Amino acid sequence: GVPGDKSISHRALLLGAMAHGTTAIHGLLQGEDCRTTMAALRALGVEVAESPDGTLCVHGRGPEAWREPESVLDAGNSGTTLRLLAGVLAGRPFCSLLTGDGSLRRRPMRRIVDPLRAMGATVLGRAQGGFPPLAIGGGRLGGIAWRSPVASAQVKSAILLAGLQAAGETSVTEPLLSRDHTERMLSAFGLVPRRDGTTVTVPGGRRLTAAALTVPGDLSSAAFFLVAAAAGGPGELCVRDVGVNPTRTGLLDVLERMGAEVRRERGRVVGGEPVADLVVRGRGLRGVRVGAELIPRLIDEVPALAVAAALADGETVISGAAELRVKEVDRLSAVAEELGRMGAAIAATEDGLCIRGRAPLRGAAVSSRGDHRMAMSLAVAALFADGETVVRDVACADISFPGFARVLAETAPACGIREETAGV
Ligand code: S3P
User: Which end of the chain is more exposed for a tag (fewer CB within 10 A), N or C?
Assistant: First the structure.
């Protein structure tokens, strides 16, 4: 198995804190990003208790019980923490200050600041609200019908969480459907959002009731192993209990199109989220075209996909992925430059990547640039390179996958990869 889903873990904590009653969460991701959300909620007066068996209990008393924090809330590296929390805080009648690490302070915030202002919140930030730190003076909100120019679950969720506290209905329309974990989890808390195409609507002023939640394994964490197995072969790799929400499974479709065998076993629904065991068997991969319509469904998997493409026959062209330039780092430049150092024939375009597969990979000194998904993608690439690869700043993998290096070392033989390079 892989650690709990990061997106679902954040939402479980936040909705638990907005609900009435005790929300028990099993399988919460214990990575740094989610610890950040937990710490922020505690600073807002929400009681979050960890029990020795790993279950986490959020004792919610509704958003009305949240208190003005005494100091700045630090979202660390986590865009989800900052943006979703900003949505809730827009409806709270007090002042909150939100900041993050150097990477998060460079990420665009107008996409949430504009709609939250339109709902009636006062939001200040660097560059006219463009970047954190953000100062939020919340209060009475009015519902809006917002058209988001980007397909972003963080934007959608921030607006919906504000909308839950607003007068009237709030709806968000996005150009393509982004991950819908917030909508699904709201249903578990007793409020079923209305969906019409890529528009989702919630009513304001309704009480959420605490729920018992189980967090599935994170497909975005499984991705590194699925790619290693698909490119490695001939063995089979099984990752158990992975969330396979259709808004997240773009990588599985692409790996199949590249020629890998991907099977879903023991499919079931847990807390409104589809879950399955994923079995991948490597066969010779071939290059593919991945266009804009698929990007929201594999937004966090592009670096891993680039590694698969570098190991495939023929050319892979990924387009419509400009959003990657505003993730933890500019992932298009980062992946092109770092994989390039290892010998991959890869170039970043304005909105994607062009990769000519099968250029031999050689060990090199590369850097994650502090980006957890870069760290893990480079470690997987290293398994297929001749000679030793040193991934600098690999520890940031803990942000979404504590213990990644150990799991990779244990799994590599099953992927048909030389064991002696597994620990690199
Ligand atoms: C996330 C949504 C995605 C994703 C991020 C987590 C979420 O960001 O890249 O890792 O939990 O809502 P965007 O929605 O901004 O694309």
Answer: N
